[in-house]
Amino acid sequence: MTIFSSSLRTMANAIGLGLALLAGLAHAEFPDKPVRIVVPFAPGGGTDLIARTLGQGMSQALGQPVVIDNKPGAGTVIGTDLVAKSAPDGYNLVIATLAHAVNPSLLSKLPYNNDTAFAPVSLIGRGPNVLVVRTESPFKTVKDVLDAARSGKKLTYASQGNGTSAHLAGEMFANLTKLDFLHIPYRGAGPAMVDVLGGQIDLFFGTAAAVGNLVDQGKLRALAVTTPEPSPAFKGVPTVAASVPGYAVESWYGFFVRAGTPAPVIAKLNAAVKKAALNPEFVKKVEQEGLIVTASEPAEFDRYVKAEEARWRKIVKENNIKAD
Question: Domain check: are 67 and 163 in the same one?
Answer without folding.
Answer: no
